[in-house]
Amino acid sequence: MAEVRVPLTITSAELMERCRKRIDNPAEFVEIFDEKVKPPSLPESPKGDKLPPEKLQNFCYNSTIALIRGLTQTLKMDLSLFSTKSLLEIAPEHEVEIRSQYLMPSDQNVDHLGQPTWECHSTRGGVNSTDIANGSSKRRRASGFEESQMPMKLIKFGTNVDLSDDIKFKRKLNFLKGSWWPDIDELLEANIPVHRFTQKAGDVVW
């Protein structure tokens, strides 16, 4: 439960006035409750006991969102199978998508003019598995950089390794098309509940 930041004696009129300030005058808005509360996560057992599957299932079904830590270790998944070395052994010439986008705060998404937007703007390029293994920065451009009217720093990161190739990979996976990052103010204005948190390596989000 989130911590309430208003007295329990607050009237409905006062409460509505605070809510109205979020839209009309965000600078004066004071949180009604803690909006940075952590997402529901399973309590860690001090003895390291394993959680019964039915309890994990019920926890996930009864939560709007659930953060599960340590699942890969519990299932004894061999994460080395997803390493660059494994990819290099399976398909040394396999294409790995590289994206270049403007550096911005982790809780915001803006276009090249600095305006809030839902669409994630990035330029697509690629390298193969061997290039990554060798630490090569040479990239094959799929499209040129768009000219920017705002001096923003560019960052590059590897993204999808498409496992749907039926020749190299037997099990096909379908990826959602397009990248989207909703604007938080628009979601709040539409009364859409939002959970914001940082997903660390190894965390599973239900």
From TrEMBL:
GO terms for cellular component: MLL3/4 complex. Its main location: nucleus. InterPro entries: Corepressor-Demethylase (IPR051630). GO terms for molecular function: chromatin DNA binding; histone H3K27me2/H3K27me3 demethylase activity; RNA polymerase II cis-regulatory region sequence-specific DNA binding. Keywords: Nucleus. GO terms for biological process: regulation of gene expression. Residues 125-136 have a biased composition (Polar residues). It is found in: Nucleus. The keyword Membrane does not apply. Signal peptide: none annotated. Residues 123-144 are annotated as: Disordered. Belongs to the UTX family. This is Rad60-SLD_2 domain-containing protein. It comes from Gongylonema pulchrum.
